[in-house]
Amino acid sequence: MGVSAYAIGLFVFLLGANGVRNLVGLPAYFVLAGVFVAVGIVLFVRLRPESFRWYRLPAPLYWFLTLAVLSIAWSAYRFESLLGVLAQLGTTAVAVVIAYVLSWQELLRTLGTALRYLIGLSFLFELWVAVVVRQPLMPWWLEQPEGKTLKLLFWSRDLLFSGGPIQGVIASSVLFGFLGLLALIVWGVQLRAGLVRPASGWFWVVVALGTLLLTRSATVWVALAAVLVALGFALWARRRPPERRRPLYLTGATLIVIALAAVIFARDFLFGLLGKSSDLTGRGETWAKVWELVTERPWFGWGWVSYWPTWVKPFEGLDTKAGLPVPSAHNAWLDVWFQLGIVGVLVFAPLVVLTLWRTWFRAVDRPRRGPGPALPYATSALWPWLVMVALVVQSLTESRLLIEGGWLLLVILAVKTRFDYQVPSQDTEPTKLPWRRVPIPRG
Question: Which alpha helices (H) appear in 240-382, and where do they start and end?
Answer without folding.
Answer: 246-265, 267-273, 283-296, 332-364
